[in-house]
Amino acid sequence: MKVNYVWLKDYVGDPLPDTGAVDRLLTEHAFEIDGVETVGNHAVLDVDVLPNRSSDCLCQRGIARELATILDTDLKYDPLAVTPHLETTDKIKVSIADPEACPRFTASLITGIEVKESPGWLKGRLESLGQRPINNVVDATNYVMYAIGQPLHAYDADLFPQVDGQWHFGVRFSVAGETVSLLAEGGANEERVIECRGDELLIVDESSNTPVGLAGVKGGQYAGVHAGTTNIIIEAAHFDPTITRKTARRLGIVIDASKRFENEPSRELPPYGQYEITKLIADIAGGTYEGTVDVFNEPKNNPAVTVRVAKTNALLGLDLSPSEITKLIARTGSTVEESAPGVLTCTGPWERTDLLIEEDFIEEVGRLYGLLNIVAIEPEKTTLSTVNTKQYYSEKIRQTLLAQGFSEVITSSFQKNDQIQLQNALANDKSYVRSSLHNNITAALDANFAHIDLLGIRTVQVFEIGTVFNKVNVEDTEGALGYKTEDGVSEHLSLAIGVRQKGNGYTPKDDTLLESACNALSTSLNTPFKWSIKQGVAEVNLSDVIAALPVPVVYDPAIKRKTTTFASMSQYPAIARDIALWVSSDFDAQRVAAILKDTAGGLCVRIDLFDEFEKEGRTSYAFRLVFQSRERTLTDGEVGGIMNTLNQVAEQNGWAVR
Amino acid sequence: MPDISGHQHPITQMIDEINHIFTDIGFSFEEGPEAETEHYNFDQLNVPKDHPSRDMQDTFWFKSKDVSEPTVLRTQTSPVQARFLESHGAPTKIIVPGKVFRNEATDATHEAQFYQLEGLHVDKGIHLGHLKGTLEYFFSKFFSGKTEVRFRPSFFPFVEPGVEVDMRLLEGDSKLAGKWIEVMGAGMVHPNVLRNSAVDPETYSGYAFGMGIDRLGVMKYGIEDIRDLYSGDLRFVNQF
After folding, report:
1. In a domain, B5, yes or no
2. Angle CA(A504)–CA(A508)–CA(A509) in degrees, nearest 5?
3. CB spacing of A382 vs B25 below 8 angstroms
4. Does B203 contact chain A (CB < 8 Å)?
């Protein structure tokens, strides 16, 4: 949320620590700051308000209050400090069908105003928050929302029919099929007409039972304020956050007003909004304030919470005294009373709807005292009592397969087609969960075979250990290590290994290599595996295999692993060329390779010796060179040129090119 | 020269390494199902009934005809906290590395599937200082150099107080050295989570933490696009 630094000064007072210090204080004690920017001549902080504080901190005053709490000062000016006294009016009537869905609804009547452009200071502040000024009345409603967090809506009273001299507002659930015409979205001119399903909360003009807005979500076109408006009604209400959120989400409407209603601001807030806006309208649009109607059926007071000093210190790892804790909690505006030795009774200020349990207050103590002051307790070395069987044997299998030349892959759990389809999918080709690893291993064999030269391998050998999902009958028994929700979806760990020796697909020779790997696994784990071998891929239910194995008592010692720094892969194709040379005994393969690589230059990304034999005192070496650029696709001619140079260098060294 | 030995995937290398680091201080490696019930994935973890994370936009749901109770592809490894506390009670000291799923658009730093590491330590007298010490121990081992940790306020439904954890590697010539880096969320286990699993919050307290193993890989190895982890591409895997 955007916060205007100068606006903060209205509340906190001047001098205020500079923006850098405000950034640091908020970050350490309250919220992360996503950035500080300058808009016009305003410094603006982008504050990442946490979900539990979105009830009171999605406004300038909320952040100012937070800052004052952190600085341990009082606000110089606090619009929420004094309960406003609002004149009542009998010219507006409100009927609420479901008080739980709409616990509070207030409306004020102001007559004789003049709609015009807002003064520069107000426009500047709205613009600093990324808002486009419209006219003084609409701008005032937005201004008050950004100031104290209460969304407001203005109606032209003369376009809103009266019944028996009264304007009559209603709040009720929609009837399926009825329509609401909403205000145009940010700058767009067309209205948006919503067809209701029956679960939206509506504000209606009771004179004709016409929906005038989606409660909490978005205001309607109905009785909109225009250039000639002179009499206005301003609405400020509280709507159920869940109903608001569901409707807003379903319709894809996320605007500043709905975001605030969704986060359950205090039910005490609407009259403060009315007080602020009537003052502001008087200042910038003139007119006469006639009074407010306030229908408040469902008050919700903050609870008195018992906070124990011992518990506070025990959770935070601190050693604070009762008076220190009392002072820290009191800084939030909460009332604190030491009701018994070491026991504090705390009630959060009315706008803090998040302070409900002991731990909520303990969190306040922790962050205000400073989480940076938490002292680390070094963990003690202990002997582990249990070894995870799956991890133990999976790791054993991995090491066995690595030694056999297999590399490990982790592939997608989603499939285009399989046994179990998800209710909602990321994409058409990902709407099922996998029941086997076979397809993914086959795809990995195909895809990797295209890169064998680049990889410096002759055969693609891969394996995966991963969870697969099957449909089962409820009567099926649960495997010892497999999981089954009693519902027909069972999952187990699967192991699949695959071999590919030819670019055009599976050949029966692949199975020979597979069988040797399978045998190595049986030997290593000393147990038979019930493989299903199909088209160069062998798969087995690993949960079943492991369930039959003895429970290990200690992990193998940690493997010393090399530190790797990943290098990103070129997106361009590689070209491979071979060169075979007769070389005298003065040179070994390594030296020849180094000379060739050096000559071939940076485009040669690898060189592999693939054949070597001796005859009559000379050795024949055959190398494969792989060329690839990071910037472009190489041409045959370009690589041919490099090969010509290599041939020349070979001759200079006295090597005969075969 | 031709590559003879195969290469282990960086994720399972990291999980093995993480396990050894935590084994030495008494954490056992636990696991749970990837097809998880709404009950464990959300309810038991104090995630409100109407919480946005339960929406179809964020979570993959199984079809109701296939399951006897609402079931999701787990969105976090945290349900194992609830399962393990319920079956084993306190004290408890576990790590849970595992695959999790989010229904969100993918890019270089987001995948619909990724790996998470959960930690949970519940016992008498456990506080934020233990969390800090354990994480400093872990990161120092994992990044092979003395590492410090700091907390900032944060919010997650299953902890209270909740913290954001930053780490700073103090030694070495790694690109990470000397900078504060946001690495994970953590906090003291919410009393509702303990109570839901029949552990008395008046007797026991505990911390929990959760971080992306993929993100650890980004930091440890300089991986640029986490989608490479799940591509099955040996040009990626064989670098490790």
Report:
1. no
2. 90
3. yes
4. no
What's the rounded mean pLDDT across residues A277-294? 96
Whether A56 and A108 map to the same domain: the answer is no
A274 contacts: CB under 8 Å, gap ≥ 6: A84, A86, A106, A108, A234, A236, A292
The token duo for A304 is 């008195």
Alpha-helical (H) ranges within B8-157 are: 10-23, 38-41, 79-88, 128-142
The CATH number linked to A523 is 3.30.930.10
Range of the domain at A318: 304-373
- Which residue among B20, B60, B221 places its CB closest to the CB of A422? B60
Q: Tell me, yes or no, if B173 comes closer than 8 A to chain A by beta carbon.
A: no
- Kindly report the nearest CA distance between residue B239 and chain A, in angstroms: 7
At residue A82 the predicted structure's pLDDT band, cuts being 50, 70 and 90, is very high
| A29 and A9 fall within a common domain | yes
ipTM for the predicted complex comes to 0.95
> C-alpha distances in angstroms, A262 versus A97, A193, A244, A259?
20, 22, 6, 5
**Mutation test of the interface with chain B: which of A361, A424, A476, choosing the one with the most B Cβ atoms within 10 A?**
A424
Which pair of tokens denotes residue A197?
Answer: 């399903």
Number of domains in chain A: 5
For residue A433, the chain B residues in CB contact (below 8 A) are 35, 73
**Shared-domain flag, residues A323 and A457:** no
The number of domains in chain B is: 1
Residues 6+ apart with CB under 8 A from B169: B139, B143, B145, B146, B147, B176, B177, B178, B179
Does B112 touch chain A if contact means CB atoms closer than 8 Å? yes
Give the pLDDT of residue A480. Answer: 46
Is the Cβ pair A469, B35 closer than 8 Å?
Answer: yes
CA distances from B93 to B39, B90, B96 (A): 22, 9, 10
pLDDT in tens, B146-199: 999 999 999 999 999 999 999 999 987 788 889 999 999 999 999 999 999 999
Q: For the sheet containing B147-154, what is the strand order?
A: B28-29, B92-101, B113-123, B205-212, B181-189, B159-169, B147-154
pTM of the model: 0.91
Question: Could you tell me how far CA A520 lies from the centroid of its own chain?
Answer: 44
In A525-568, at which residue ranges do the beta strands (DSSP E only) sit?
A: 532-534, 537-541
Chain B partners of A455 at a C-beta cutoff of 8 Å?
3, 234-235, 238
Give mean pLDDT, residues A325-333.
Answer: 97
Higher pLDDT, A564 or A100: A100
Phi (first) and psi of residue A115, to 5 degrees: -80, 125
User: Is B63 at the interface with chain A, CB within 8 A?
Assistant: yes
Task: Judge if A457 and A483 occupy the same domain.
Answer: yes
